[in-house]
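hey m, so remember when u said the tokens were messed up on ur end? i reran from scratch. heres the input so u can diff it against urs
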Amino acid sequence: MFQNEKQFFYINEIARLINEDPSNTHKKLLELKKEGVLIDKFQGKERFFQLNVKFKFFKEYQRIIFAENSALGLIREFFYMLKKEKKVAFAFAFGNSARNRLSKGEVELLIVGSIEKLVLDEKIKELSKQTKRELSFILLTEKSFQVKRAKKDPLLESIFKKPIFKLVGSFNLTKPGQNNPKELSSFEKNRLKVIHKRG
């Protein structure tokens, strides 16, 4: 669920993902709702649950879960610190590593920010040793990202057709010069959806 914060999940779906009995899952979900971690809604007779992103400890929970469960968690923690230092605006993994976060293959990254490439190269090499994963990245400034996106750059277009796993920051997909960006269209949301899988 932490990989797709805006999606609602029904009880049986969650039970399958965590390999647990639906009745026990239901009880735990109700406890988490009572604590404020989850919110719910009904569609007909089906009850759906979603993470409450307004929960005061949401970010801390998210960081702990990813750090404990996957290489992507360590990578996310790494970019969290760079964002805190205002060197990275946003970053995401794409491709197979986003489709399956427990995959042992190469992790492809798109990074947008002001950090110097040579500095990032050294940091990524060290991160690769820590995670025992091959890491490759594309680094763009925010301005460059917006210009390339507005021009429908073939490389970015191909990336956005793949599964994406957000690491830090928010995607600003409005064209350069636009003010008060509107919510993403359903088409763009679909292309930038985060695959919600748990090993």
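this time it looks ok to me. Residues 33 and 117 are 44 Å apart (CA to CA). if urs says something different then somethings off w ur setup not the seq
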